[in-house]
Structures are given as structure tokens and as C-alpha cells.
Design goal:
Blueprint: H1 2-32, H2 34-51, H3 62-81, H4 98-101, H5 106-123, H6 127-139, H7 143-150, H8 154-173
């Protein structure tokens, strides 16, 4: 009976990880940059699996907890690399495949270049502000969820979102 319960728990964890894998990978990429995203994502999954026993569903959804674990992994990585909040992360130009871009229709090319500009602009923001923006706009996290994930008051989240949008707008207008 205990073996069956353990097997069901592993299956559920596998389902949850598959369900949130792309969001976790994107969050990691937005925090540590393209060149370190794969390592951060893998380490996040390992830490989630190792620490799933500490997840308390009564305190919030799995997604909130998993994002918090992933963010902590990424912040640890940044600390190990000596990158401080607010310092522009390295930009990996490899994800903008110039040979492939040349064959895209004009609209698709513009979208790809716009996305590249947005990613570069995001990388100039301090890590907490960047994370809040990504969680809110890309993962539809609420103010409350973001506050819980980042362990800050909801007012701070609202300020980061407001200021982050203003900084992104200013940065993108100069491009």
C-alpha cells in the first residue's frame, strides 16, 4: 500500500513538473541569461524533486512554490558568478539566428527582432524587478503570488511592476 502511494506521488510530481517545465525554464532564462538557463533549469528541477516534501499546499499552489525554488536557484547562481542585482547580464546573441531571420517574412522578422530587443531591455533591470515583470506578464501570476514568491510586500511588487514597465518603455524607445 505504501509503495503504491509513493508511486502515485511520483507520478503526480512528474505531471506537475511537465506542466510547469516551460514556465520554469523561461523564468530561469530571464534571470540568469540564455547561456546559463539550461543549468539553472536543471538545478531547479533537481532542487524541486529533492525538496518536494517541504511543499505545503495549504500555503499556496505548487506553481508558486516551484517558481520560488527556481528563483532561489538562479539567485544562488548569480551570486556564485559574482553578478549583483541591477548589473546587466551578458547577452547571448546566439538565440537570434541571423541566417534563419533572413528567410522570415517581414512581420515575423519584426516580431523576432522586437522580442530580442525586449529580452535585452529586460536584462538591464535589477533581478527582482525583472522577475516580477516576467511572472506577471508571462506567467499571469497575481500580485499576491509574486509577493509570496519573492517574499516581499504586495506594494513592493506593484512598485517594481510600475517602475519596470516605465524603464522598459524608455529603453525600448531608444532602440
Amino acid at each position: 500500500m505504501a509503495l503504491q502511494a509513493q508511486s502515485e506521488e511520483r507520478a503526480e510530481l512528474g505531471r506537475l513538473l511537465r506542466e510547469h517545465s516551460q514556465a520554469i525554464a523561461y523564468l530561469c532564462r530571464s534571470i540568469v541569461g540564455e547561456s546559463h538557463a539550461r543549468d539553472a533549469t536543471q538545478e531547479s528541477f533537481e532542487r524541486i524533486v529533492r525538496n518536494v516534501g517541504s511543499f505545503d499546499g495549504g500555503r499556496g499552489p505548487f506553481r508558486t512554490w516551484a517558481f520560488a525554488v527556481s528563483r532561489n536557484v538562479c539567485r544562488d547562481m548569480l551570486r556564485r558568478r559574482g553578478v549583483e542585482s541591477g548589473v546587466m547580464l551578458e547577452v547571448d546573441e546566439a538565440h537570434l539566428d541571423v541566417a534563419h531571420v533572413g528567410s522570415l517574412p517581414d512581420e515575423a522578422l519584426a516580431q523576432k527582432l522586437d522580442m530580442h530587443a525586449l529580452e535585452r531591455a529586460l536584462e538591464t533591470l535589477p533581478e527582482p524587478m525583472r522577475t516580477a515583470l516576467v511572472l506577471f506578464h508571462m506567467h499571469d501570476a497575481s500580485y499576491e503570488e509574486i509577493a509570496q514568491m519573492l517574499n516581499v510586500p504586495m506594494g513592493t511588487v506593484m512598485t517594481w511592476l510600475h517602475r519596470g514597465r516605465a524603464r522598459l518603455k524608455a529603453r525600448l524607445e531608444t532602440v
